[in-house]
Each structure stands twice: as C-alpha cells, then as structure tokens.
Amino acid sequence: MKALLLALCLPALLLPAAGAAPAIIPLPISLQEQPGAFAWNASTPITVAPGAAEAASLLRDYFGGLVGPEKTRAPIVFEAAPTLPEEAYELEVTPQGIVLRAASHAGWANAIQTLRQLLPPARIAHPAAGGPLALPCVVIHDAPRSHWRGLMLDCSRHFFTADEVKQVIDTMALHKLNVFHWHLTDNNGWRLEIRKYPRLTSVGAWRGDDPAERVGDFYTQDEVREVVAYAAKRNVTIVPEIEMPGHGMALLTAYPELANGKGPFRVTSELFIGAADTLDVSNPKVYAFLDDVFAETAALFPNGYLHIGGDEVDQRPWQNNPRVQAWMKEKGVPDLDHVQPAFTARILALAQARGRRVICWYNGRAAPMPGAIQMYYNNHPEVLAKLLQAGDDVVLCPDYPLYFDLAYADNSTDKVYAYEPIPEGITPEQARHILGYEAAIWTEHLYTLANIEAQTYPRGCAMAEVFWSPPAARHLDDFHARLKVHLERLKALGISVHKRGSDI
Ligand code: ACM
Fold this sequence. Notes:
By secondary structure, this protein is an alpha/beta fold. About 35% of the residues lie in helices and about 20% in strands. The strands form four sheets. It has an eight-stranded parallel beta sheet. α2 (about 55-65) runs parallel beside α3, α4 (about 160-175) packs parallel to α6 (about 220-235) and α8 (about 285-300) packs across α11. The longest helix has 17 residues, at about 285-300. It starts with a helix and ends in a 12-residue tail after the last helix. The model is unreliable at about 1-20 (pLDDT under 50). Acetamide (ACM) binds near residues 311 and 377.
C-alpha cells in the first residue's frame, strides 16, 4: 500500500513545489491545478497555427533544445482561438503536452511568459540544461486588466546600450509589461540618430568640456529597428519620447539657430539642471525641423504614439525675445501661459499628419493640452477626476508610488502593491479614458543596468500585478508568498534585485 502511494505521488515529487500552486506573477485570472505533470525532457515537436510563427520562434528563444521540429500533430500546440480578446490566452499543460491558445501573437507571447514561470525557478534561464523536467499540469485562463502596462527609461541622463535596453525589455516581458516608453532626448544627451540632422548625435549625444572626459553615445536607426523588433516579439511596443520645447540643451547645442536665446549652449553634465532655454516658437524653421524629426521617428516606431514631453518649461526667456513677442501678437496669444499651448497645438497637427497621437507630461498645474493624451505624473484623485470629466485620455504615471528612481523607503514594494490606479468615484465611462499605467525610471543617479534593475525589482513585480490582475484578486500575503519563489527566478536570470524591496 505504501509503495503504491509512493508510486502515485512520484510525479508530484518532481514538481517545483509539491502541493503549492504555481507562483505566477502577475496573478492569472484563473488557474486550476490538475493531477500529474508533463515530462518535457527532450526535443519535442510543435504544431504552429497560422499567425503563430513569431510566437513559436519566441518559444524556441526561451526553451532552446526542448522545442523540436514543426509537425501537423505534436505534443506542443499553438492553437488559434479567434474569439479570445486581445492579449488574452489559455494555457493547458497535461501529461500529454502543452496547448497555448490565443487570438494573436500578443496572447501567445503572454502564454509563453506564464509557461516559463511553470518551470522550477532555477531552470528558467536554461530550461534545456539540468536533467529531467516536469511541468505541473494546469488549466489557465488569463487576460489583462489594462492594455497599457508601461515602464519608462530615461536614456539621456545616462546612456544604456541597445543590448542593455533589450535586457530591460525582456525583463518587462517576463512580467507581462507591454509598453516601453523610451525617453530619448533631454538636456544631457540626444540619443536618436536622425539622418537629416547629423549634428543631433555627432554633437548632441556627447557631453564633457574636456575632450578626454567626453561621455555619450546614441542609438543608430539600425539599432532602434532591432530593439523595436526584439520588443515586438515579446509583445512590448515602444513609445518614443522627444522632449520639446524645453529639456533641449542637447538639441540647442547641435542647432543653436533653433534656440530662443543666444546661448552659448552646451550639452550639460549637470544632471539636475532645470529648464534653461527653449526652442524659438516663433521660428518657422523649428516646425520644419520637428516635422522632419517626426518623419524619421514615425518610420522607426510603428505603434502610432509620440511622446513630446512638454514638462518643466521655463517661460521667462520668451518674454525677452522680441521675435516671440511679435509672434504672440500676430497669433493672438494673450500671455506667456498660452505660448506653450499655441506651440503644442501646431506640433499636434504636424504629428497627427504623420499618423501619430501625441502624449504630453501633465502635472495638474497648467491647463491640459487639448487633443493630447495626458501623462499625469502626480497622484491627486481630484486632478484625475477633473481630467476624466473633461473627456481627456490619460495615462497614469504617478511619482508616488511609481517613480522607481525614488527610494524604496518612499515607494516600497508594498506601497506599490497597494496602489489602486482608479480612485473611488470614477464612473466606468470615465475609466475608459484611462488608457493605462506606467512606472518611470529617471537616471540622474542611476548609472548601470544593475542599478536600473534593482530600482525596478521587486517593486516592478508588484506593479505588474496591479496593472494586470483583477483588483479584487490582490492579496498582499499571497503576493509575498509568490514573490519569494519569483525572486529565485530573477536570481537565476541574473537580474539585480533591491534588498530593501525584497525584505519578505
Ligand atoms: C517629470 O517628472 N518632470 C515628468
């Protein structure tokens, strides 16, 4: 009898944590454990539905030699389920094999990330190495709460190579984060190659007065295309940010003829600089220049959004510029407060003509830019309510708790987990105008990929669950228990994790 019991239990003993539900982050809508396991020990053939070739390739990227040749009937199946919503997936593991069901690439990519988390944590980096493998049998139905689950990275204050950016994106994908907001220009460096204006990168990407101490770099258009494709394969879309009319010392150093003032300008090494000078909003060349920049940017980033920054603009230099004063009279701009909106209205028209929807930073103090998506970066429910009542589309990126350059002492993992982005009193109709949510990583004091990762994780795990899972399903103790296992995954993948944030 004992021997029989032992034999019956044997498959269970091979599971990563016998008896415990698989520790998936973010938590799926529904996960049913089933008896048994799938022994995935050798190259196993796959069946690939039309439209799933990219997903099959992603499975190969992650599972290496465990994924065998394509066959019409095979134990691992990518199945088309056209009635499933965008990004939703179903994942079934049985003793006979694995079925990944979705309507499109996004859903299959999400299913693959969940499948990775069914592995024993230590095996996630190299599943094909290390002996017999048993995946627990499960039936999972899952779909995201929000389709905009973002992370912003500032690559101007400090530059991160295209390969490092890919690593950031791959770790996002593990957590089913799907929007990488790429802050590409600022006072401390212009990072995007624009072929029509080579000085943007030959001059604007470099800082330091002493030639021996010059630092900088930029992304070539070929590198950007590579990063965009790498991200798309992982169901991550990229929103580029080109800051204007302020935060532009790198731009003005490269092309001082576009500046409001006389300069001199230099790409500054002072990382905490406030706004200095701005673009000359009265100069037609500024609009022609930006239109050219938009054309090249739009060709590189296919997703239809363009973030134009717009935060922290010092309006005072416009007051001392007779050209801008004359332009204000001519355009009927009544005062300094209306200069930036008049500028941005023209930018919106240019970007729209290139098929882009514009996103602007919004802090709740000035009037929101009509027609733009407001990226609201403070956290006052009454300001959000006002935006939504006015019918503005909004992406929420609240500094507290989602600026991840800030200390864990301020924005702790548990605070992030407790964050509920839709405050009470918001109607379902108004909530439809909340397009999604992001965290931001400004890099004034973050130098390395390891810095960025540790500032992001583990609180990014909590964020991923806030953005993905139904709010009623969130329970802190349960999250902590799953996070404990998940931290082993991050360790196996070589991802740096902040000790303060993992104090569980
Ligand atoms: C911002 O924090 N200035 C967007």
